[in-house]
């Protein structure tokens, strides 16, 4: 083998080639430069063996990249590296000294631990599997819960009804809206035309919430345990999932108590209590209806109380606590009270001391009778009221009707309605400007009857009707002879009714039938008699009584004349208002004289409204005629004898006319 | 006007929020599921210790699955909310119900009126007879 000597080429590196082809060579480095370059290449930090070729390359590249920095003197780098090596060796020496120190104070040498063995992969798999299992179980339980809740909804006959279905039903019947997270409902009649604003604007508001599932089944169990065995169906009834929270002032039961009182003394002592107390666990519909009823009653009472204070009749109305007392006739009072029982103060009246806005007017009168009020409302028996005060259901109904009508009128305006006119004006008022009405006319037009006035009118009429009925029945029971038959008209209005009275004698209906019609208004009676006379009477019962007594008396006389026609007797005279005889306390007595067909017997009948009928008889050839010095001739015996009274109450016969017929027959025979 | 303009705006926002809730929940379910699947991958080289990693994965999976359940329940809640919203704001159906109810009640009231009138007529005629008899009888004492 031939030795190949590697040498540095003798030529220097070409630095630049000029355009004319001349090459400029790099000057070879001097001796010192060469040494520096070689010394720089020595790396004291490496062993030489471990340095990979790649690192070397990188270093070379770096070196090439970095511009060659000229050291200050040739072996500077060598010096630096040697110094660094010295530092490291010193540190190592110090360290070894510390380690070698006995006892070990600062540092101990430990054997190097062997590298941890490679973890087994299956542990990782197992743990992953476990994690996935736990995740799956969580998902499954969650899914199961969802499924359970869903199947619960779809299943019929389940214990709890669906919240949304119930909510839908509630929404269809009540006004609901969502405020924030709660569902708020409105109980008030505002949308129906009510203008009722209480002190708190949220009075008619209730809250709808979802009944807790926890309480649902437990209460169901409690209910089924407590329910009577007679009602197994009740247990199966689904539990409501709706809960309705009604404000406390609207809970319970309320009604308007209306009664008519006669006693003067204890005006304020009527106790208004109610035993009907509604428990908390009622279906929401009933609960809401009751609450609405409470609200309605409160509004009604409030309105009435306001009107009672505002109105100024001759006898002022009394507003005390939860009662309004109005005088309808002298000695007769109308009592309107608000009965409200709620959970707070139990079943008793007078729960609304503050609801009556202005009790200021009659406060003096109320103070005077307040003692009796307090004293008499202590019974806990829970009666609706004292038995002597009868609750007038029809009047309560009328009150409700009146307020409903107010609602109705506030929204219903008569049509057609011009577009330019404001709503709620009546047709007359729209025309008022055109017709140039003055203030009085306008005021008259605007005046409306208040609820209290209307109800008082109705009560007056009611009372007057009952009293008329009573008077007529009393008279009918009192007088058997001419029968008094009354027929009440079925067509009547709250303030007007009508009764037809027939006065007949039994068995002699065809002879005569005295008819009269009485119209009953609020404070007056109008009587239309048989002869067309119209009489207007006041509410005093005595006037009606007198009138009927007069009619009975007249009936007797007229019937007797009718009978005379049938029997052939002649009416000699008939006088309606006779001036002689004892003076009647009221009206006038009347007389009738009848002559027998042959003319030899004469019957005289005298009757007055307050006197019993008296009958006299005289015969024409007087049996006891004795000629005297003055009347000497025999012919004067035909003048008629002295009147002899017939004791007709001892006579046979069913009634007056029957007796008279028998008497006539006896005298004719 | 401002009120009426405000109202639809609030409604629009509410509907949008429902939409957003729906999307968020569905996305949450999907994301969590994806993450769980990703966690199922075995990784060799990690910075943290093996046991820590195992615990972390376990815990993460539990949390993510619980998140999925929560999102599903949130969807149910959303359904309930939408139902409630529909029930409370579905005015056409409410109007229909009101009309239906009012027709029913009007019919009932008409029926009751007719029956009452018939009853009244019957009673009036009977009462006439009865009054006639009563006042002609001797049993009138109160």
UniProtKB/TrEMBL annotation, chain A:
GO terms for biological process: regulation of transcription by RNA polymerase II. Residues 45-72, 347-389 are annotated as: Disordered. GO terms for cellular component: core mediator complex; mediator complex. InterPro entries: Mediator_Med17. Residues 347-384 have a biased composition (Gly residues). Residues 46-64 have a biased composition (Acidic residues). The keyword Nucleus applies. Keywords: Nucleus, Transcription, Transcription regulation. GO terms for molecular function: transcription coregulator activity. It is found in: Nucleus. Belongs to the Mediator complex subunit 17 family. This is Mediator of RNA polymerase II transcription subunit 17. The lineage of its organism: Eukaryota, Metazoa, Ecdysozoa, Arthropoda, Crustacea.
TrEMBL record, chain B:
Its main location: nucleus. InterPro entries: Med22. One of its GO terms (molecular function) is transcription coregulator activity. One of its GO terms (cellular component) is mediator complex. Signal peptide: none annotated. GO terms for biological process: regulation of transcription by RNA polymerase II. Keywords: Nucleus, Transcription, Transcription regulation. It is found in: Nucleus. It comes from the Eukaryota. Belongs to the Mediator complex subunit 22 family. Component of the Mediator complex, a coactivator involved in the regulated transcription of nearly all RNA polymerase II-dependent genes. Mediator functions as a bridge to convey information from gene-specific regulatory proteins to the basal RNA polymerase II transcription machinery. Mediator is recruited to promoters by direct interactions with regulatory proteins and serves as a scaffold for the assembly of a functional preinitiation complex with RNA polymerase II and the general transcription factors. This is Mediator of RNA polymerase II transcription subunit 22. It comes from Portunus trituberculatus (Swimming crab). The lineage of its organism: Eukaryota, Metazoa, Ecdysozoa, Arthropoda, Crustacea.
């Amino acid at each position: 083998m031939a030795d190949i000597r590697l040498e540095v080429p003798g030529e220097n590196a070409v630095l630049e080639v000029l355009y004319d082809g001349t090459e400029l060579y790099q000057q070879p480095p001097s001796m010192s430069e060469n040494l520096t370059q070689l010394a720089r290449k020595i790396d004291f930090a490496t062993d030489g063996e471990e340095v990979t070729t790649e690192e070397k390359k990188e270093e070379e590249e770096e070196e090439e990249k970095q511009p060659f920095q000229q050291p200050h003197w040739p072996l500077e780098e060598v010096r630096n590296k040697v110094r660094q090596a010295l530092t490291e060796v010193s540190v190592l020496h110090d360290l070894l000294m510390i380690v070698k120190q006995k006892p070990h104070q600062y540092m101990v040498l430990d054997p190097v631990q062997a590298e941890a063995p490679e973890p087994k992969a299956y542990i990782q798999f197992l743990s992953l599997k476990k994690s996935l299992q736990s995740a799956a179980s969580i998902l499954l339980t969650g899914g199961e819960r969802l499924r359970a809740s869903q199947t619960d909804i779809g299943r019929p006959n389940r214990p709890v009804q669906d919240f949304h279905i119930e909510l839908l039903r509630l929404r269809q019947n009540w006004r609901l809206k969502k405020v924030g997270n709660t569902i708020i409902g409105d109980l008030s009649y505002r949308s129906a035309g009510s203008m009722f604003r209480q002190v708190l604007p949220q009075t008619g508001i209730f809250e709808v919430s979802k009944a807790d599932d926890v309480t649902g089944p437990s209460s169901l169990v409690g209910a089924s345990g407590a329910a009577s065995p007679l009602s197994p169906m009740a247990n199966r009834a689904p539990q409501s999932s709706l809960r309705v929270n009604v404000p406390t002032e609207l809970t319970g039961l309320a009604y308007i108590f209306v009664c008519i009182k006669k006693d003067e003394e204890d005006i304020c002592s009527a106790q208004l209590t109610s035993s009907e107390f509604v428990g908390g666990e009622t279906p929401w519909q009933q609960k809401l209806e009751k609450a609405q009823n409470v609200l309605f009653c409160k509004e009604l009472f409030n309105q009435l109380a306001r009107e009672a204070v505002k109105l100024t009749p001759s006898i002022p109305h009394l507003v005390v606590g939860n009662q309004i007392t109005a005088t309808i006739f002298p000695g007769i009072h109308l009592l309107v009270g608000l009965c409200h029982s709620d959970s707070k103060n139990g079943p008793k009246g007078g729960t609304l001391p503050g609801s009556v806005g202005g009790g200021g007017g009659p406060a003096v009168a109320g103070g005077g009778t307040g003692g009796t009020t307090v004293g008499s409302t202590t019974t806990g028996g829970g009666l609706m009221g004292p038995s002597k005060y009868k609750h007038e259901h029809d009047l309560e109904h009328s009150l409700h009707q009146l307020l409903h009508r107010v609602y109705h009128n506030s929204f219903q305006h008569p049509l057609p309605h011009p577009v330019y006119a404001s709503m709620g004006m009546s047709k007359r008022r729209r025309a008022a400007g055109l017709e140039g009405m003055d203030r009085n006319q306008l005021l008259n037009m605007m005046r409306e009857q208040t609820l209290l006035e209307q109800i008082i009118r109705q009560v007056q009429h009611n009372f007057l009707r009952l009293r008329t009925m009573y008077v007529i029945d009393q008279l009918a029971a009192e007088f058997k002879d001419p029968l008094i038959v009354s027929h009440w008209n079925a067509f009547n209005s709250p303030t007007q009714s009508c009764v037809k009275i027939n006065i007949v004698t039994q068995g002699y209906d065809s002879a005569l039938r005295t008819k009269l019609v009485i119209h009953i208004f609020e404070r007056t009676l109008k009587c239309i008699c048989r002869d067309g006379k119209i009489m207007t009477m006041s509410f005093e019962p005595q006037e009606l009584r007198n009138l009927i007594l007069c009619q009975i008396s007249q009936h007797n006389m007229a019937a007797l004349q009718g009978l005379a026609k049938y029997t052939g007797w002649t009416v000699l005279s008939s006088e309606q208002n006779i001036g002689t005889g004892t003076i009647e306390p009221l009206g006038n007595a009347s007389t009738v004289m009848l002559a027998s067909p042959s003319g030899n017997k004469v019957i005289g009948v005298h009757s007055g409204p307050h006197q019993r009928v008296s009958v006299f008889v005289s015969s024409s050839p007087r049996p006891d005629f004795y000629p005297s010095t003055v009347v000497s001739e025999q012919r004067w015996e035909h003048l008629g004898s002295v009147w002899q009274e017939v004791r007709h109450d001892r006579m046979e016969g069913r009634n007056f006319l029957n007796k008279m017929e028998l008497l006539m027959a006896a005298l004719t025979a | 006007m401002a009120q009426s303009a405000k109202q639809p705006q609030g409604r629009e926002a509410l509907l949008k929020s429902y939409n957003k809730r729906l999307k968020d929940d569905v996305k949450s379910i999907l994301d969590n599921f994806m993450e769980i699947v990703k966690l199922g991958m075995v990784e060799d080289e990690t910075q943290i210790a093996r046991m820590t990693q195992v615990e972390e994965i376990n815990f993460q999976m539990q949390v993510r699955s619980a998140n999925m359940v929560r999102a599903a329940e949130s969807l149910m809640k959303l359904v309930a909310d939408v139902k409630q919203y529909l029930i409370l704001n579905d005015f056409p159906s409410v109007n229909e119900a009101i009309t239906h109810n009012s027709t029913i009640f009007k019919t009932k009231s008409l029926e009751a009126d007719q029956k009452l009138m018939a009853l009244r007529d019957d009673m009036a005629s009977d009462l006439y007879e009865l009054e006639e008899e009563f006042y002609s009888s001797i049993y009138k004492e109160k």
